[in-house]
Amino acid sequence: MLPAVVKLCCGISYPHLRSMAGLQRAAVAVIGQELTHLQRLRQIQHHMRPHAGFRNQECKIEDVKPVPSKEDQQLYVHQGQEAMRKALSMLEEKDGWKVEITENDGDVICSKMMPGARKVFRLEAVLEASVEELYDLLFVRVEEMHLWNPSIQHIKILKHVGPETIVTHEVSAETARNLIGQRDFLSVRHSCKQKSSVYLGGAAIQLESFPPQAGFVRAEDGPTCIVIQALEEDASKSRFTWLLNMDVKGWLPKSLVNKALPRAQLDFTRHLRRRLTASATPR
Question: Which residue(s) pair with 244 in the sheet?
């Protein structure tokens, strides 16, 4: 997640991450390109195998605003699932992780260099909130994130593709702590619930109907994911794992970007804890 966070986690040996799975990138249809997109869909369906652990759900018409074509729905879902699968595969890799930051509260951020000389960052934290509460804040009510996270100016859901997939536009805030500068993001986000865990995956997409906005640098996130798992000893708390994988674009030095991104993860987690504390405080 979310790029929603950075503006948006070392070496993993946790057994619970080895059973996760996920889908793929696609574009949005416009009327003049409908036949082209139908051909793409047939090719994807021909070569694609279903991934274990995910439920293929058809969208109910009342869940979709505005209503994309059935082909578009499948393409959005496929891209979101593929982004999640790729991100979880990164988390499963044991080698190459380096500790970047260790906080007094136990939060740890590790990094790994990926092909193309780009770093990804993995944050591990324990939050005093249930899986459902975090799912509600980070996915269901994602448009309200700017109310508790000052690093975000706004997030708007452009398309609902059933209960598990959305297309969003996000704009980061222009704050003093934002070393990267203001960016906007166009993303597909996909969620999956499995027993006492929730997986949130996403990646950048392109929409001809929503080109880059004047005055903003359009950054690209993903594949990225957040894994939320209930602690075995206390289901009211959750292990929070966030893989941040982002290309901020522009002409910023990599050294600056590689310092700013993990700091943005810590900032987001701090704001999230404050939000959880405020909601738990009796009024």
Answer: 121
